[in-house]
Specification:
four-stranded mixed sheet
Length: about 325
């Protein structure tokens, strides 16, 4: 070994971060890459006529919870300079899109709660949910109920679907987060064994399976609706969240400062990948638009052909005109 080689030091990622980074690269490369799961969508008017009405049940003002929410959002408000949205209430447009998605995927029987907090009601829905076997309801389901009670999504602005109570919670006011929760509800209702599936997906790292499925689903839905604003929002909002969630298992092996740095770096990677996918989709949409415009111009030319006479070219005589000229020729010769 030369003296130069002896001074070369190769720095390798630690085992605590190597696996999350590998999983992150695989997941983000796989997001939004697969066959579309939406063929034909029903128009909004037909959805409203054919599906039950979706009722959004709003929570009442709560001095304690609202105060805790302001404290939890204080760091975000300081970083954003006070530009954080003052409330987490979905706009009318957001409600319409959420209603479209819920009705389109036959989830009208799922209760929808906005900024709602009721541990007793959650316990009642847990007992009445017959789709989940008791062994899963009273183990993992009980743990989810405890988490709901002591870490309310209303306080932290977290949208979620609880498969054990069959409840949708919209607490952020952000469309992509709310659709993500609804997409998980769709995933659960398509499972023959929702209890084991929900239990496995409630564990760290393993929950990435349902997370990436939800992201893919709302991307396909946005593409089927030709809603570029929604699709672009998924790339910008959801990809960083997937990246941060990928880094969670490494937090057990790192200090608090290292954990924060890992979350920030993971979010940055997710944002970069999301922006890259977004730029790729912009190029694809531009190419599709040019191709459609070219086909339209070609069809218009076929329907309305132009008659252009080239200078120096005479029109070809028809057979009848040729016969008339042949008959007239002998008469001219006889006169001469």
């Amino acid at each position: 070994m030369s003296s130069l080689d002896a001074h070369i030091h190769i720095t390798k990622p630690s085992p605590a971060t190597r696996v999350p980074l590998l999983v992150l690269s695989l997941l983000l490369c796989g997001c939004a890459s697969g066959p579309s799961c939406y063929r034909e969508l029903t128009c909004r008017d037909r959805l409203r006529e054919a599906s039950p009405e979706i009722v959004f049940e709003y929570g009442r003002p709560n001095f304690l919870l609202d105060g805790m929410q302001k404290v939890a959002e204080l760091p975000s408000r300081l970083m954003l300079g006070g530009r954080l949205k003052p409330d987490h209430i979905p706009t009318d447009e957001t409600r319409e899109i959420l209603t479209d998605y819920i009705q389109e995927n036959e989830l009208a029987h799922v209760p929808v709660f906005v900024n709602y907090y009721s541990p007793l009601g959650e316990w009642k829905r847990l007992r009445e949910n017959d789709r989940i076997a008791p062994i899963w309801k009273y183990t993992a389901g009980t743990f989810s109920l405890v988490n709901y009670t002591i870490m309310p999504g209303r306080v932290f602005g977290r949208d979620d679907y609880n498969p054990f109570t069959n409840s949708l919670y919209f607490n952020s006011g952000r469309l992509t987060d709310s659709l993500h929760a609804a997409a998980y509800a769709k995933d659960i209702h398509q499972r023959e064994a929702p209890g084991p599936y929900a239990t496995v997906n409630s564990m760290p790292l393993l929950s990435l399976w349902k997370t990436t499925r939800a992201v893919d689903d709302i991307v396909y839905y946005a593409q089927a609706r030709d809603n570029w604003q929604l699709e672009s929002g998924v790339y910008r909002d959801q990809f960083p969240q997937v990246a941060v969630e990928t880094m969670v298992p490494a937090a057990f092996f790192m200090s608090p400062i290292g954990n924060l740095a890992l979350a920030i770096s993971g979010g940055a990677v997710g944002y970069a990948v999301g922006r890259s996918v977004e730029q790729q989709r912009i190029a694809e949409r531009s190419a599709e638009g040019d191709e459609t415009e070219s086909r339209g111009s070609q069809t218009e030319d076929e329907e309305n052909p132009s008659h252009v006479e080239l200078a120096g070219h005479q029109e070809t005589s028809s057979p009848a005109d040729a016969d008339a000229e042949d008959k007239a020729q002998p008469e001219t010769d006889n006169r001469r």
